């Protein structure tokens, strides 16, 4: 059951919303076949300028996958902006952990080092959104979900 351990402080919900705004700003350019080539050019130019490596040339499948990822992340971000809930932070933390794992895998297999910038943010937001859940689950509830009696069902107390 998720709810008994949910961090409920207003600051946590602000964090959930902040991560959503980051996602919206960063991934909006991935969401359409018209904006992704522009973003691709910018990222490739930055990678070349800072000797991090350029992105591979565009092809229809790369554009499709970028658009699918961008569309889903934009919708997910809008949900967290409009109605942030503690469980959204938990799920976003899990998703960011997965994104960071796949980014690390790509980096280990020769992907452009521009990816490090995205990896750092994914990992950071993942940790800060999951840490309160881990603390609440362990019973260290100060500042996250209230007192032990409020945060845990009677069977666990």
Which sheet architecture does the biggest sheet show?
A: none
Low-confidence stretches: 143-157
Enumerate how many helices there are, as a single number.
6
- Percent helix among the residues? 55-70%
Total strands: the figure is 0
- What's the rounded overall pLDDT mean? 88
Q: How far apart are the termini?
A: 15 Å
Q: C-alpha Rg, in Å?
A: 18 Å
Into which percentage range does the β-strand content fall?
under 5%
Shape: globular
The SSE string, one letter per element, is HHHHHH
Category from helices, strands and their pairing: mainly alpha
Short description:
The chain has 157 residues and is an all-alpha fold. It has 6 helices and no strands.
Structural features:
single chain; 157 residues; mainly alpha; disordered C terminus
């Amino acid at each position: 059951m998720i709810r008994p351990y949910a961090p409920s402080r207003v600051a946590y919900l602000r964090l959930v919303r902040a991560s959503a705004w980051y996602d919206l700003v960063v991934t909006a350019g991935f969401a359409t076949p018209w904006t992704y080539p522009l973003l691709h050019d910018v990222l490739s130019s930055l990678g070349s300028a800072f000797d991090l490596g350029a992105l591979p040339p565009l092809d229809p499948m790369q554009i499709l996958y970028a658009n699918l990822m961008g569309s889903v992340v934009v919708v997910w971000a809008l949900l967290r902006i409009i109605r942030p809930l503690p469980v959204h932070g938990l799920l976003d933390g899990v998703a960011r952990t997965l994104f960071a794992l796949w980014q690390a895998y790509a980096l280990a297999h020769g992907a452009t080092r521009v990816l490090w910038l995205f990896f750092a943010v994914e990992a950071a937001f993942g940790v800060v959104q999951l840490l309160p859940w881990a603390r609440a689950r362990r019973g260290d509830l100060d500042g996250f979900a209230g007192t032990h009696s409020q945060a845990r069902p009677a069977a666990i107390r």
